[in-house]
Structures are given as C-alpha cells and as structure tokens.
C-alpha cells in the first residue's frame, strides 16, 4: 500500500485521495464565491415616485392632469419608431435608477451608479434587435 499525499483527506481511500482533495477544494471555492455573490446582491430597484427627480415628478403630474396623450394609443409601426420609443424608455429607466442611487449612502452610490449604467448599456445593446423583432 502506498503512503497518502500530505494534501489528501485522511479518511479517503488511497486511490481517491488526490482527486477528492482537488474536487473538495473546488467545491469550497465555488461555495465561497457563491456566498460572496449573495452577500453583495442588492435588492432589485423598484420604480416609485421617490426614485423620480422633483422636476420630472412635476412634469408627470401635469401630464396626468391633462389625460392620456393620443400618442399612447398609437402603436409604433416601424422598427425606427419602436427603437426611438425603446431608447426613451431606457433613458427614463436610467434616470430613475440614478435618482434611486442618489438616495443611498455615499459609500454605496458609486457601485449603484455603475450598476445602473451597466444595465442601461446592456439594454441599449439589444434595443435595435428588439425593435426589429417588433418588441
């Protein structure tokens, strides 16, 4: 019988010690990374009036008082029109997200703004395909 390696588990059989040790190390490393991901995860940002800048809230209130604009009931029929609408919506979502970031403590603000900008970039990257598909 051969002598077990120093980096193996004492309870494992001699044939499986080296592979088992590396698998165990990989599993522990994956669990640590997963745990770090959960620890750093932020709750999804919700869209509320608190996330909207005051000037935008006033403009929205005035628009609501006038009723639904006619453009809301007209569908965008061309890919270019859908793309324009998507870009406006994505810009508004970015503005709301940045407004929510401003309400956070200074230590968290930078990461929040980076995440908002990354989401915006990801959305914009797929906007043209989404508009062409009719969505």
What does this structure look like?
This protein has helices at residues 17-40, 54-66, 79-102, 106-125, 127-132. With 135 residues, the chain is mainly α. α3 (79-102) runs antiparallel to α4 (106-125). The protein is flat, with a radius of gyration of 26 Å. The chain starts with 16 loop residues before the first helix and ends with a helix. Mean pLDDT is 74; it is low at 7-24 and 36-43.
- For this entry, what is the oligomeric state of its chains? single chain
- Sheet-strand content, in percent, reads under 5%
**H/I helix tally:** 5
Topology as a string of helices (H) and strands (E) = HHHHH
Indicate the overall shape: flat
Mean pLDDT: 74
Tell how many strands the DSSP assignment holds.
0
Low-confidence stretches: 7-24, 36-43
Tell me the Rg in angstroms.
26 Å
Major sheet description: none
- In terms of structural class, how would the helical and strand content be classed? mainly alpha
Q: Compute the separation of the termini in Å.
A: 67 Å
Helix content: 55-70%
Which keywords apply here?
0% strand, 64% helix, 135 residues, flat, mainly alpha
In short:
By secondary structure, the chain is mainly alpha-helical. It has 5 helices and no strands.
Protein topology:
Blueprint: H1 17-40, H2 54-66, H3 79-102, H4 106-125, H5 127-132
């Amino acid at each position: 019988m051969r002598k077990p390696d120093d980096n193996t588990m004492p309870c494992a059989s001699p044939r499986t010690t080296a592979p088992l040790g590396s698998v165990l190390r990989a599993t522990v490393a994956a669990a640590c990374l997963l745990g770090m991901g959960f620890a750093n995860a932020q709750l999804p940002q919700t869209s509320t009036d608190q996330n909207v800048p005051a000037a935008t809230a006033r403009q929205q209130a005035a628009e609501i008082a006038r009723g639904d604009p006619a453009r809301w009931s007209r569908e965008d029929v061309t890919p270019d029109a859908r793309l324009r609408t998507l870009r406006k919506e994505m810009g508004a979502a970015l503005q709301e997200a940045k407004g929510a970031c401003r309400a956070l403590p200074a230590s968290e603000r930078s990461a929040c703004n980076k995440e908002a900008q990354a989401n915006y970039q990801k959305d914009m990257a797929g906007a043209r395909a989404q508009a062409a598909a009719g969505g």
